[in-house]
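Weekly puzzle thread! Below is a chain. First person to post its structure in token form gets bragging rights.
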Amino acid sequence: MTRPTLVLGAVALAVTLGTGALWMSRRTPGSPPQEENQEPFRASVMGAGRLIELQPPSTPLRTVRWTLPLPGGAAVAQVLTQTGRQQAVLFVQGAPGPTFTVPEPAGTPDSFFQFADLTDAALVPDETLALLYRSSGNAASPALLVVLDLRTQQVRWSQRAPGEHLALAPDRRSLFLYGAGVPVSIYDLANRSASHPPAATTVEPPPEVKGISSLLPLGPQAFLVAHEGGLSTWRQGGWTHLQAPPPSPLGFPQGLGQIAGGPKAGWWQPEPGVLIPLGPNGKPGTPRDLKPLLAEAASLDASLLHLLGEEADGRLWFDLARPSLPAPVPVPVMAPVPAASDPATPEVTVPPPAPPAASPSREDWEAHLNQGLGRLYVWKPGEDHMKLVPVAEAWKRLAPPPGIPGPPEPGSLRPESGTLLCGGPDRMWWLPLKALQP
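Winning reply:
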């Protein structure tokens, strides 16, 4: 009986080893078995768009986040597990594309990478995907920029640097990293053979540039920025500045300056209600009067129009910004003065000058604001009117899938992408932007 026992033992050992080898071949080396790679999302046609649903993961998740839509109808979703595994899923036109497992870059603290939030991305179709990660608990911590090669689906290089947003040059060969109070960093994306971060061109904002809110690349090493003080241009190693017009008496918060368009023609909005055309290389033109573009009943909306961006066909999208309506500055009352040097002459009080009558009045503005601002406007430059998009009515007409909250927040609308993402993060409805229009 000894020989059969030995044979059976050898067979059992071989089966065990073979099963283990098969299991090891089905998972990423060094990863626990429950973190097998799988497709995180499923998409299906639903109404006017596509419904994207997170599949039940085998590993508990820490975070699921989406970037705002990117030009070309793309978007990126972050899937972060409780074990700190960072995944990024690229979507194009609502369809899931490749899923990337982003390795932790050398020298990056675990406390940063395993909790970092994906906050922005930039896409060069079929070539490059840039991902911007920021600390989930320390806004002052430098961001992490990861550049992926879409052809090899490998990380090309990564870099820690301060910044909040990404923008691509018109030829898509340079990447701009910028933020409200940090230098502008420009990276060369053309060198595909580099396995280490390229030397960045770092542009320090001068004292005239405070609080950058929007950046528009003009070329590989040139850009415009809107900031609290106005509009500034960096070109050929030097700055030029244009001061913002006087602020509106309605009282809008700072940081709403916006630039849209391209290097040949664009638009600058220093604050809501103002729209200034930009010629080649950002040369400003005569401000556009927005009131004639609206119906008379909506004329008060003209002073609230907040530029969101420019669609690929040149259409400009606006929402409405809510002003603070600061109290009017009281006119100082002049002290009584004697009418003459004779002490017996009675004192005469000089009345203060009457303040100019507000048109419309504060009461008119408060009544208008209390009616709600859930409206979007679309304007194709050259047309004599703007199209009104009542968001709530449009949402009902679209008949969203059950469980998708709406209507979408204006801050989630990036017109240059041509798309909308509604809901989320585990159930997202992808829509073409034109579906909102009447």
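Puzzle host: Confirmed. Bonus trivia for everyone else. The first helix runs from residue 2 to 25.
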